[in-house]
Structures are given as structure tokens and as C-alpha cells.
Amino acid sequence: MSYEFDSGEGEEKTIWIQQFEESLRQGSSFYIDLNAFEKMLEYYQGRGKFQLALKVCEMAQEQMPFDVEVLVAKASLLNQLNRQEEALELLDGKILCMHPNDSNALLEKASALIEIGKTEEALNILPKALDGADDRSEVHYRVGIAYLQVEKTELAIRELKKSLQHNPVNDIALMELSICLEETDRDGEGLEFYKRYVDEKPYSANIWYNMGFAYNKLEQHEKAIQAYEYAYLIDEQFSSALFNKGKTHLELEQMQEAIDCFRGVLKIEGPCPDSYTQIGAAYSQVKGHEKQALHFYQTALQENPKHSEAWFGMGCHYLRENKTEKAIKLIQKAIELKKDDANYWKGLGQAYYLSAKFQKSIEAYEEAVVLEPREQSTWLEWSHVYFEQKKFNSAIDIMQEALDEFPMSARCLFKLAAYMLLSEKTDEGLSLFRQAIHLDFELHHEVLVHYPSLQANEGVQALIEEFK
Hints:
The chain is mostly helical. The protein is built from 27 helices and no strands. Helix 6 packs parallel to helix 8 (136-149), helix 13 (221-234) packs antiparallel against helix 14 and helix 22 runs antiparallel to helix 23. The radius of gyration is 29 Å and the shape is elongated. The termini are far apart.
């Protein structure tokens, strides 16, 4: 006997589902036609009940042993359950023998091969899946993921873009593309890509969200806030957009706006240590609100005592109050919980420096640079510790290494120029000062504030007059 799905089905099981599961318990037969099969599969997969979905496939296969839709669905579930060898046996031994060019079967075979490390073989199969594919976006997405597996990022980016050309609201492809562009420092390219697609799909919250992320990376924070705002207006449950908007307000020192965003996240998600920590961070930077800051950090730790960001936030709070010993202990606790966070090590370096523990400060900064060499400010602060100790050659060595990472950084060039000039390496110093002032004339004012003795240097003054 077969039963129809109730078109208004909600969360509760229908009588039809109850009868099916009863037949499993009793080991009795149960008739499933193709229409019922599709609906049952959707029901169980949508609830993450993959074992029951597989049972549906097995029962349907007994009744429709040569139906390609049933067989491919079973192969897909075997893949989801990490039973790739069984999936490949079904695909090669039966499905592809009957239907060698079936796009969905080829996709499932490629997925299985990727999972067992045979990515190159998968890449040979995937282009064939494009012929006759109902969902070309999905095929290009799978090809992109395969290229990522073998670290061919440029080819992965190409395929992910093709995926989005066929389906601009393929959220998974959009996320992977965003990660690839970020990792290859191509945020500007990503931004232009998102702008094109937001014209086609202006109500895609995810595209606006990714635009906001790209704007942040390019330090265009006001535009980032606007993009996150659009994402949230489209989807008022999009807590990540509201959270990132709050963090951007923090970056711009717009504390009340930041707090409002994080409180909004709490309304959507309920108690959340991340949001409590960020509210603490905002209050920590508003004079007279120190108690509120500590309250929210402590609330975050009540929710999750292992929330490293809250420990670090409290440490930074005490560091701003010049309570360095307390700050060091709290930051060390954060590092115990998350040893590979470069920002924590950088914070520890700052705390040790302010407590005059210079060797420990140097070691902490070095660890931070090893973990994240692309954070320019860490190099600058690390070199400054040596400079303050009159270890000019070490300070110079660090900034020369920094320039390997940031060859066009006016800030790094000015810093190295200052070290050279103040250690009486005049020719090298003036040459570097010339390069720096050519890149960013206005920044020289800040340099002279930090190193006022350079104002008396005739060569420096001549360069300033030359570039006015």
C-alpha cells in the first residue's frame, strides 16, 4: 500500500512516514512509487537522517532495480555517509554500465574519487558530466573544488566563476570563491565580480554580504557597512551580516552603533559568547564604561569558559588600564586555549613591552610573525622593541625582512629609513626616505612626530621640499 504526502506537511511526521518506519521495524514490505520515493528522500535528507534515506533507496531499488534516479540517489547517499568504495562499486558496476554518459552519475563518481584522494582521475571525468547536465552550475562547482584539492587555485577560481555565471545565487560556490580570492589577495577582483552579480540578483543577501567582506579587506569600511546593511535588510535573520557590520563599526570607533549591532545578533541567536565579547570590546574603549566591559567579557566566559577571545579581550582591557601583569596572565590564558592565533601573540608582545620585559616581548612578536607574516603592524612593533633597546642592526634586519613581505609599503620604508638615519647610515637612509615620500608624502608628518630628531637632518628637509 502507498500513501501520498500531505502538501501542507510541517515538522511532524505524516501517517505515510510513520507507516514506512513501522514497516522497517517489522521487516515487512512497503510499496514505493517514484513520486513517493522523491518526497521521502527529500523529507529525510532535509532532516539529516541519511541512514533512513538510504533505507528508502534500498527499498526502492528492490522494486525498481534499473531506475537510474533511484540508483544515483543511493550512490549520492553512500558518498554522504563516507562509503565511497560502495558508491564506486554501484556506479561502475551498474549505473554507468547502463548509462555511461549520465551527468549525475558521473558527478557522484567524481565526488567519490576526490574523497579517496584520486583527484586527477576525478578531473578527467568531470568535463564529461557537463554534456547533458541539468545543473551546469553544480558541475563547474565540483570541478572547482577538485582543483582546490590539488592546490590549483587559479583553475578553481575560473570554475567557481563559471558556476556562478550559471547560477548567481549558488551560495556554496560564492563562499568558496570568496575564500579563494581572499587567500590570493584579490579582493578588488572579487568586489568587481560581486558588483556584476548584484545587478542581476539585487536581493541576494549572500552577495551583499560577500561585497561587505571584500570592502573591509580593501579598508573601504563605510561601503562595507552599507553592504552588510543591505544583506541584513534582505534577510533579517542574517546574523553574520549584522555581526560583521558591528565589527566594522568597531574598526571605525563607532561604539554605540557596534553595540546596537551585537545586541541585534543576540536577539536573533540568543546567548552567544562572540557577541558578548564584542560588546565588551566596544565598552572597553568608551571612557567610564569599564564595568560594563568586564561584565560582558565575564558573561561570555559564563557561556563558554574556553572562549579564548573573551580572555584576550579582558587582557587588552587591563592593558589599556596599564595593569600589565594582570593583562599578561589573561592573554597567556587565551594562548593556552588557542596557540596558533597571531593576534594573541602580538598582544602578549605589547604587554611584555609595556612591562619592560623586552626579551619576552621580542619572542612573542617573533611567534606572531611566524604565524601571520602578512600583518604589517606586527613587524613594525617588533622592530621598535629592538630600536628602543638601541639594537639598531636588529631593528634594521627586521624591517628589511618586512620589506620582502611589503615591498611597496611607504610605512615600512619610512620606518627603515628612520632607523638607518638614526644609526648614522645616512646614504641608505636618505635613499629609503626618498622612496617612501614618493609613495606617500603625507605620511612623513607622522614619521617626524615619532622621530623628531630627523627634523634637523638637512637631507630629510631637502627631500620634503623637493616633494612638496
